[in-house]
Write a structure and sequence with these properties.
Strand order of the largest sheet: 1-3-2
Largest sheet: 3 strands, antiparallel
Order of helices and strands: HHEHHEEH
Oligomer: single chain
Number of strands: 3
Helix content: 40-55%
Shape: elongated
CATH architecture of the domain at 45-116: Orthogonal Bundle
Distance between the termini: 55 Å
CATH class of the domain at 45-116: Mainly Alpha
Strand content: 5-15%
Structural class: alpha+beta
CATH superfamily of the domain at 45-116: Winged helix-like DNA-binding domain superfamily/Winged helix DNA-binding domain
Number of helices: 5
Radius of gyration: 23 Å
């Protein structure tokens, strides 16, 4: 039986700007990077549970109460809250020695829509 080999890869000269000539504007690239960072934050079940608790309550929740849903020690819960705060998903309000957390008003709709798909 005769077999013939066919080339499967074709070499083509590349254009300087990009392969298709289409470049994402810097603003879109920055937005995509921001969304990707937020999805990385959401990739943890503990943080999803905390966000879900905050999304289902209409008022700020004390940090001491957020550990009940995740069965973790307070230092670990505090770490997860810091990650959520650094990502701009939650706000902190001090009341005496306690910290109360709520969804960031600008992110509440996005967080609720994202959690609704889970």
């Amino acid at each position: 039986m005769d077999t013939t080999t066919r080339p499967t890869t074709k070499t083509v000269a590349m254009q300087a700007e990009s392969c298709c000539g289409i470049m994402l504007p810097a603003a879109n690239r920055e937005r995509m990077e921001l969304v990707a960072r937020r999805f990385k934050v959401l990739a943890d079940p503990t943080r999803l549970t905390i966000l879900s608790t905050l999304a289902n309550t209409g008022e700020p929740v004390c940090a001491c109460d957020l550990g009940d849903d995740v069965a973790l020690e307070q230092p670990t819960v505090a770490h997860h809250l810091k990650v959520l705060r650094d990502a701009g998903l939650v706000l902190t309000e001090r009341r005496g020695k306690w910290a109360y957390y709520s969804l960031h008003p600008e992110m509440a709709t996005w967080v609720r829509a994202t959690l609704a798909g889970v």
